[in-house]
Write a structure and sequence with these properties.
It contains 16 helices and two strands. With 445 residues, it is an all-alpha fold.
Length: 445
Amino acid sequence: MPQLTGDEPLSGRSRSEGRERDFGVFWAAQTLSVIGDSFALIALPLLVLHTTGSVAQMGLLTGAGGAAAVGAGVFAGVVVDRLDRRKLLIACDLARLVLYALIPLVWAFGPQIWLLYVVLPLAEAVGMLFSVTYVTAVRALVPGDRITEANGRLNATAAAAGVIGPLLAGVVAAWLGPASAVAVDAVSFGVSAACLNFVRFTGRTDPAGDAARGTRRESMGKEFVAGASFLRHHPVLRSLTVLLSVFSFLTLGLNDLIIYHLKHDLGQGDGAVGTVFAVGALGTVVGALFVAPIRHRLGFGATWTGGVAVCGLALAVMGSVGSVAGIAALSAAFLGCVSVSGTCSMSLRQEVTPDHLLGRVTSAFWTIHYSAAPVGAAVLTWAAQRYGTGSVCLVAGVCCVLTAVLALFTPVRARRPEQAGPVAAGVVRGGSGQESARSGSCRDE
């Protein structure tokens, strides 16, 4: 964030201090929430594995959650662009608090796998709504030329929290059982909601902007199409959507594969699972801290494609490694590069999308590129149970590398796509009468 100077006017200084405070509270809320999420990330697959002993069941649950997220993505952007974004973030946190709290309460009377197939899809649907709102919130809390840096800071501290989270989750799961670890996740959402209550966003965070423009709302379907239309007319975002669809299909089930490889193939305990995920989170920290300077030096295209390529290389050999330390190191490399590429992608979308369309564009982007991922998770985990994790990881990793190579033949290779001129998107209809979907230009990081 920009530092204040003594020469700054008092009114400007107050606004800047207010934005820094709001961003700081928002930052803290998300860090605490990620610590809790780390518990669910490990605890839910362990609940399934302890009860059924089946990696295919783990993949099916992951796929069910992913499918719910995709379904929610169809209307999430429309909801975000219509409602007060701060209140929406708080409501999502409170909803997930209730949902995840049900698991340890019911599990106290005995395992009930069916409950996971109810709670996780609902929680993932709410999580998709929260995630879309989260992206628009960053845009409302920091100046446009600081978006990549802000995203890097949020991802870095979230990943740092993710280092201790998996370690604690492994310990809690080993001592008290995975259901107790899920309870920690539920509490974290309550703390996050309390923090967000003190955050104030700048810019248009509620429907008042639509009324001010004297525009009318269309159906949710038409408003979703507005976001998809913007993606279709922006050459880089259009290519990213297609490429990430392939990448998501290949990698959504990776957490299940890692847990299965550690528990089934190597005979490791829950503590080893937590350690691997914690070390992997360190990679996310490093990637998030360095993404802004890397993008500044190499440009968007080289940073994004390079990150995806390294992800593929790490994934290709992960399933055949026989030591916990080796798997942890490869997980760190994979997650670090996911952080770099993901932060670049999200920042570019925030930089070039008009604010009144940002929720719908984000929703359309995630829904489209994520739609095949649940199927991929189910297919990869089924294949791992039948053919082994080594073979499945090798094939998936090679395909990820080929995805990076393919990106070199698309507009994604551009060095500074955020500085391109307005997108000739024509006229886009979507909940605000007829609006021109044109990308703005942002200063370089």
